[in-house]
């Protein structure tokens, strides 16, 4: 009778189900934690920090002095000084011209309205040429007729030549006749002329 074949060698004994599940857990428990290993620093980072600490930082620049000022401030100062010197002269000149204009308009109003038309026109014409002579415009004092009207109309804006016409047409007549409306219109135009002329 032959001996039985050993089944242990052909079919190895498998571990129990519980032992298979417990083996990986034991192996996992034996692995060391990540915190147990030393953390190595980057050598280049440590070297950069050391070099930066050894650098000599530049000193802050000194504050900008207020003297001498920039060239632009000298220009502003010169303009202010020029204005300070010119302002009194300009104000005095303006007051003088305003006073002359006021006196000229007052002289026009002072011409008596009771004069005849011929006398009244003569007084008005004489006043205008006297003011022009005081201004130094002697050439205008020799004008008459239409040339005189051309000169008057050329020296103020929007002239009303029709209102000034009596100074050329009626002035040299033997019997000049003006209506009250013509006198008022002529006076109004002469006041406008005086406001726009430095006489």
From TrEMBL:
Region (Disordered): 21-43
Start-end of Low complexity biased regions: 21-34
InterPro entries for the chain: DUF4381
Keywords, alphabetical: Membrane, Transmembrane, Transmembrane helix
Pfam families: DUF4381 (PF14316)
Transmembrane segments: 72-92
Highest taxon in the source lineage: Bacteria
Name by which UniProt lists this protein: DUF4381 domain-containing protein
Organism: Halopseudomonas laoshanensis
């Amino acid at each position: 009778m032959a001996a039985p074949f050993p089944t242990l060698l052909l079919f190895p004994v498998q571990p129990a189900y519980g032992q298979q599940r417990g083996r990986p857990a034991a192996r996992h428990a034996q692995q060391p934690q990540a915190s147990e290993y030393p953390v190595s620093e980057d050598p280049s980072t440590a070297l950069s920090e050391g070099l930066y600490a050894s650098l000599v930082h530049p000193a802050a620049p000194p504050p900008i002095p207020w003297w001498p000022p920039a060239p632009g401030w000298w220009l502003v100062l010169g303009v202010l000084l020029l204005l300070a010197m010119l302002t009194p002269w300009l104000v005095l000149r303006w007051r003088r011209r305003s006073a002359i204009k006021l006196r000229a308009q007052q002289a026009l109003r002072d011409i008596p309205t009771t004069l005849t038309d011929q006398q009244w026109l003569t007084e008005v014409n004489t006043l205008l040429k006297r003011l022009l002579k005081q201004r130094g415009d002697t050439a205008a004092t020799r004008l008459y007729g239409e040339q005189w009207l051309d000169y008057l109309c050329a020296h103020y804006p929007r002239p009303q030549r029709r209102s000034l016409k009596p100074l050329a047409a009626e002035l040299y007549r033997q019997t000049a006749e003006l209506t009250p409306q013509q006198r008022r219109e002529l006076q109004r135009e002469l006041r406008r002329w005086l406001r726009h002329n430095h006489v």
